[in-house]
Amino acid sequence: MSGRDRIFARVRSALAGRDRTELPESFGEWRLKSPPVSPVEGFQALFESAGGEVVRVSDRAGAATWIARFSTDFPSVIFGEHVPAELKPDLPSVTPEVAALGLSMARGAVAETGSLLMDARDGRRAQLLAPTHVVVLDAAAVYASLREALISLKDDLPSAIGFHSGPSKSADIGQIMVRGVHGPGRVIALVIDESVIVQDHKEGIS
Amino acid sequence: MSRVNPGAYRAASARTIQNEPGVRDSVGSATRTFDANRVRAFGQIDSERWRDWARDVKTHALTNLDRYLEEAEMRLLANGAHVHWAESADDALRVLADVVARHDIRSAVKGKSMLTEELGVNDHLEQLGVRVRETDLGEYIIQLLGEPPSHIVGPAIHKSLDDCRRLFHAHLGTAPDATPETLAAAARDALRQDFLAADLGISGGNFLAADTGTVALIENEGNIRLSTSLPRVHVAFVGIEKIVPRLEDLSGLLQLTARAATGQPIGNFVSLIQGPKTNEEVDGPEEVHVVLVDNGRTELLADDVAWEALRCVRCGACLNICPVYRQTGGHAYGWTYSGPIGAIIAPGMLGLAKALPLPHASSLCGACVDVCPVRIPIPDLLLHWREQAVEEGLTTTAETIGLKAFTALAERPDAFSAAGALLRWTPWSAAGRSLPILGGWLQERSAPHPSQKSFRRLWEEGIE
Amino acid sequence: MTMRVALFATCLADQFFAEACADAVRLLRHLGVDVDFPERQTCCGQPAFNAGYKAEAARMAAHTLSVFEDAEYVVLPSGSCAGMIRSYYSEISDEGPALDLGKRTFELSQFLVHVLNVETLGRGLSGKTVAYHHGCHALRELGVDSEPIALLSGAGAQVVPWEADKECCGFGGLFSAKLPEVSAAMADRKLDTLPNVDFVTSGDGGCLLQLSGRSQRRRVGASGVTTPFRHIASALWEGVG
Question: What is this structure's pTM?
């Protein structure tokens, strides 16, 4: 008998004679006491209160303009795999280990938790190593609830999904909050209110 | 194995209270802040309903554990992960040793995980010649100090800013009066090198979704994302009780755990890990091993009352509110899991004789019941283990004789009131210290003053 | 028709808070209640129950059930013992009679507010500042929270906010003797945060013994507070004025 078999035998013996309860309805019909007016507003409020920044632009051209201007403060950049050429600023592209700025595409976002959904296929190092992380998000890809987001992710799961809901932070030193401990200390969600990026993104990764 | 010695709880707690007053200050202030944040975060939601739901999902998963473990294993294998089963800490460490040997691992980075503390992973890796680095800032601090965690969520909450300044000055060369930001930046720089050099990343697992084979991890620093993304091999140690049926069940559990633990809507970083890097990905580990650990959990599951403790999501809310835990922090408990939850799972996982007196390390004030996100009836389970201890003859003779004699008196009202009169005439301060129960009382308090006459006598005399 | 109450003095208050029990009788009589003291009463069994001696606790519960079998109401100057009867007797005794007794059992302030519908006793505490310690079982098992505060305020007292008023004092029955160092540190937390008041009151004698005993011990070491500790039954009787 293997260790696995012995564990299963012990589990089954422990459960013999115990009621096997029903699985409750999935979570999500009674969320926050005061739900946000729209998913994007909800995402923005929570992401900002967790220390993240949100910039909203009306279209892809506006996003490109904002990125070009913002990136002038940085000496180097690492791009996520699915960042379209038109959004890439004219900046030396370097390895993620040394990049000053990371630019990634979000697969989506969640209003009720203020989370960006980061797909491993866009490149994990670009999402994690640079001190500043800019994430492009299509407003249409913001789910109201985490439950809806998870159900939609289920059909197309990469090796890993990261929810990024603010900058890296810690209160482990004397219970005083500091930012930028390991992951990015500054994270900016660049929200494109009307865009076709989601479709492009999906084509890119399918 | 890490140091396991719950039996020394009284001496250890007394020592902490008397010799290290700074611990009580730091732990008290940190836990009160955690709890105030929880109160605010619970106020934003229909917390009663969320907690009912979370209780029901975890109960369902536990009462169908065999079925979901099989499903999770199947899904993980289909995702390309390796699945291992560990009956004991030794089994789990053997899996790790095999991975180390096969991949010629020299250095490892580790995300915060109570299970790896329980198993003694760090000591084992060092014996194997692997340099292992804790990367959670709090875990890093206590690793430098050579101490175990003092709290499930905040491992270094017993340390003050000044403690950290002295430590980092000695190890990282920061200024003796450095700001928390400077200290964190120094740790970041030192640990970044470790992340980039490591061949192995080690994590625990907060949840394991059976239908997708997803290991979910909650954190705030990003060190777990880095530990599970950069090294070429990732080993996740997951307790078998961590299973949930569906990926979407994480929606409520991730949020409720964060709200209960720190008052956040969700941890700033959550990782959902299905398996190793796929062909369409540019980075990520080439191998992912998921080690499903029993190590006493099936023993706890077999207890018809205490099995409910396996619902625990390790949020630490019961520690934060516990007036007993607040006096000492976690070290006094002599085991990885401290506070109320530690006191109810220790007897099941370690054996009751070894876990005593932890089930008695509670005044049964009941504060923990109101905060537990999965509604574990903690005081009832403490009572359950106390009853077991009596049944198994694990109490002191003096206590047993005393309580049996008291009970016999209580059934005979005349004798009971006579004994009460005797009690009032006892010269307490002089005689009391040598008596078993009274001695403990008089050690820390002045002797109580009995009334001049009992109420019974006042009643007989007539009350005006 | 006169309401009839059986007073369960509890073993601890019988010996250590006899005057407070007498004050509870005076208070109830003043409010028009006919008070009886069934003489066969002893201990509710809580010390044994909380220490894990279920069989012994069951014997004491059975005795107590027989003593109060015919009582219209049972009132206790103790939230903890009232909680024992209401919450746990059905686990260790005949369920029907136990639940029935539970429904008839009240902690003193709970009885005044919810059965007698009294909130204003008099103005006997005018000008007094008071800190109220919430006994854990009164608060969490019985849900007694605003009742004692309302009664004290109604009698003219100023109930001063106390940061740690709902934290456990560290008594916990045998806990205080088994783990005296932790128990004393818990009392210290209460005493260190205690506001400057004329007296501290609570509905549980055990908590008052713990807090006053610790306070007196600290006073020997010159770090203690000198505030008096009084049972709420006495405070409320004074409140009648």
Answer: 0.95
